[in-house]
Design a protein that fits this description.
alpha/beta, Uracil-DNA Glycosylase, subunit E, 6-stranded mixed β-sheet, 8 helices, 42% helix, globular, binds iron/sulfur cluster
Amino acid sequence: MADSWEKLRADAENCTACELCKTRTNCVFGTGNTDADILFVGEAPGENEDKTGTPFVGRAGKLLDSFLYAVDIPRDRVYIANILKCRPPKNRDPLPAEEEACIDFLRRQVALMQPKVIVCLGRISAMKLIKPDFKITAEHGVWFVKGKYQMCAVYHPALLLRDPRRKEEMMEDMKKIKAKVEEMKLGL
Ligand code: SF4
């Protein structure tokens, strides 16, 4: 049977493939425009996301919104998801086994969405999606071509809350994303 967003969401909501199913309040599937050309991928839901079932709704999400607004990328023209669909307890880093158990949901999201640009939010997402030895401080804002996708990584907004001095670099990276979108003549 052909995959669909409805089937995929139901599969994720019913998933018990790793231990995180036992502690989640909600599966945090993804949010935004499924026809968008730009996909943002973070690492895992946090406390607010677990409560609401929506990614990037807490302070970090609001900060991400402000960067999108600043470079005139409407949030309803992007899709936002995470590598893990369930929250790791106490917001610890995802375990490799959890990433392996969950990554197929993201693969299916990408296959359905067919984005042109994939932006990793933070080190963990970049290490999983771009390359295992990705160095976020040295390689944020650098473009990589993987298959048919233009990919780059930016700082995770939660890191910017802890270290606001990096906001300037984030702004420069967001401008690069906007320029790439314009260069590729993608719809915004
Ligand atoms: S994190 Fe992913 S693999 Fe683990 S239970 Fe949730 S949906 Fe399933």
